[in-house]
Amino acid sequence: GKTLGATYGGRLIPNGRKKVFLWFNVCAIGSQMLMQIVNTYTIASGKFLNGFFVTVVHMANIKMINETVPVYLLGTCGTVVNSMQSFGYYVVMGLGYFMPSGDYDPEVMNSPENERAKQADIDDQFWRFLYLIPVFVNIIMLVNFTVFIKEDSIMFNLSQDKDQEALVLIDKIYHQDEDR
Predict the structure, then answer these.
(1) Long-range contact list for 82-87, CB < 8 A, 24+ apart?
(2) C-alpha distances in angstroms, 104 versus 110, 121, 128?
(3) What are the two backbone dihedrals, phi and then psi, of residue 116, each rounded to the nearest 5 degrees?
């Protein structure tokens, strides 16, 4: 009955995995916008909040996969989350290749003939782009959960006595030849 959802997923997830995805992706976008303000405190606060929001989304993602995907596919689908996260790290590290050199030599930078280099260093805003990359990921997740994935997980629907919604998702996921 109702106790399954309440004891299976901490304090945030029992209200619905889809709600967690929607609200915490919006919060993550807000925290990423906070990191665009050039101030040590706002950038640090934004990174801290973003880490919290993204971790909750990540855990809800794992929970939803475990509660929806057929048991014989859990090994394959379970690795997708970590594989895509690793792929994202590689993309961001690859983008770091295009960043200006971080070599700072005070004697060269403070020389009068190097005014143009100093101004170019001050005008560099590429870091903002790197901090905005996750916004695109959050937007894609929001679109997916508002347009394509309209149901919550099968187990959550069953724990909330929403048998019809669970059957709709079962029909979408399982092959026609499989027993229900």
Answers:
(1) 85/58
(2) 10, 10, 20
(3) -65, -40
